[in-house]
Amino acid sequence: MPAQTTDEEAPSLSESDLDSEGNPRQKQADPSGNLPPEDKVDFMPFPMNTNFISQPVLSEELREHIYQRVLQVGSVKIVSAELGVDMNRVGAVVRLKTIEKDWISKDKPLAKPYAKAVLAMLPTTPLVESPLRPQVHESINDLPVHPATTQQIFEPTSESRVFTRVDASKAFDPTLLPADERIPHPELVVLERERLSGLSQEERLARQRERAEEEAEKRKAKDRRREEREKATLKRVLPTELGGNGGRWEWRFREISVQDAGKDGRAPGGVGWRYGVPHDDRRKGQVKIPTRV
Fold first, then answer.
1. pTM assigned to the model
2. Bridge partners of 18?
3. Is residue 110 within 8 Å of 104, Cβ to Cβ?
């Protein structure tokens, strides 16, 4: 069950919401048997833990709309920005919807009553039809934590220097992009800057369309280069080449050199590097303060 346990987002309860023992008051149905509308108390399933709040889930109508929009525009990023849903969640919805429709085509049974019962117990984000603005489901532009930023660094700089996010990224790693470019939707920052500069909505949309097409071409070219590099460095051997009867498996060989690990053994091209090498920033006896400027 999606939930939030942070104190800062916990709803404040008034005395009318609590019973004589200090617990959230239970709602009573009217004479016709109908319950009153949901409020902040209904999102706390555990009366003794008021910091545990059930977070909304996507409604069935919104999930179907997400699937259809991805099929129309062909981009998970665009749909995420339009509907206020994280790209990972949009991708998950598309994959699950694909499986669901495949099961329907094969006449496999679906647990519709179970899904309906679970959705009835949780708050949901509804589908808002255009031209109204969609209801934002979650934050979609949170900055991911890069492994290069998990170490302690003392960066000497003059007091008169303007230290920006670009300088901070270069201090951690020369190849690390600044925060404005590492967020999932950097195009939203550009759109907001263009809006503040006085550009009309038509001009902003036209520029954004051009940037999206250019980014798509760059991504395709990058994928092609990666595939070509993979084919050049990877040797595949099928069972039929060795006199076997075939099958769905194959051998894959790649040339490895001990020099790939570098002089200190920490180069990312070395074998076993991905299993982790601890940083020296918290090791005892290491000089952490810059010795020269």
1. 0.68
2. 24
3. yes
